[in-house]
UniProtKB/TrEMBL annotation:
Recorded catalytic activity of this chain's protein: a primary alcohol + NAD(+) = an aldehyde + NADH + H(+)
Protein name: Alcohol dehydrogenase-like N-terminal domain-containing protein
Organism: Dioscorea zingiberensis
GO cellular component terms attached to this protein's record: cytosol
GO terms, molecular function: alcohol dehydrogenase (NAD+) activity; S-(hydroxymethyl)glutathione dehydrogenase [NAD(P)+] activity; zinc ion binding
Keyword Cytoplasm: no
InterPro entries according to UniProt: ADH-like_N, ADH_Zn_CS, GroES-like_sf
Residue intervals of the Alcohol dehydrogenase-like N-terminal domain: 39-165
Key words of the record: Metal-binding, NAD, Oxidoreductase, Zinc
PANTHER family recorded: ALCOHOL DEHYDROGENASE (PTHR43880), ALCOHOL DEHYDROGENASE-RELATED (PTHR43880:SF38)
């Protein structure tokens, strides 16, 4: 990041990323380019990342192949720079990326029945909401994973898909909150509404079971 006359100029960064070039191909550590954040986006320096079964599915090319790609959707990082219009976050904030965003205004966000935002749907096409990518490798565009792509040193995320967390939280624990814990704990707590004394059956013992 360069500065001129006291004003910071956000530039494209070169950093390391684990690139998946094709279905079930080994990830290779490459030098990638990560663009500066655009309006309503933040660029995050990843501090810790976790592996989820969904990452494995995307690595296999399911439900459809999008390569080359930076996988990963669980992690925690620190905001390196912010784009135009971002007021709720600042440089230095500790954040986790989230697969599901919310505008807090649409019919779904204001409902107690679902959190699948109508304005900011889950991104499945490997691109940002404006249908472009913020990452490239060797002159070739890289697909994102959801709105996250945590298997690299820097990533760009829409501010609606970022959650600020208490910096005192251990990083290895914070990394699991974006999917594994929120899915496993959120379903029985928010959806099934399990109460004390309930008898339940648990299928799967993984992080995102």
């Amino acid at each position: 990041m360069a500065s001129s006359g006291g004003t910071k100029t956000k530039k494209t960064l070169t950093c390391r990323g684990a690139v998946c070039w094709g279905p079930q191909e080994p990830l290779t550590l490459e030098e990638i380019q990560v663009d500066p954040p655009r309006a309503s986006e933040v660029r995050v320096r990843m501090l810790c990342a976790s592996l989820c079964h969904t990452d494995v599915s995307r690595w296999r090319g399911l439900p459809f192949p999008l390569f080359p790609r930076i996988l990963g959707h669980e992690g925690v990082g620190v905001v390196e720079s912010v784009g135009e219009g971002v007021e709720e976050l600042k440089e230095g904030d500790i954040v986790i990326p989230a697969v599901i965003s919310e505008c807090r205004e649409c019919l779904y966000c204001t409902s107690d029945r679902t959190n699948m935002c109508l304005k900011f749907p889950v991104m499945l096409n490997g691109l940002m909401p404006d249908q472009t990518s913020r990452m490239s490798v060797k002159g070739q565009m890289l697909y994102h994973m959801f709105s996250c792509s945590t298997f690299c040193e820097f990533t760009v995320v829409n501010v609606n898909c970022v959650i600020k967390v208490d910096p005192r939280l251990p990083l290895q624990h914070a990394s699991l909150l974006s999917c594994g814990f929120s899915t496993g704990f959120g379903m029985p707590w928010k959806e099934a509404k399990i109460e004390k004394g309930s008898t339940v059956a648990v299928f799967g013992l993984g992080g995102s079971a």
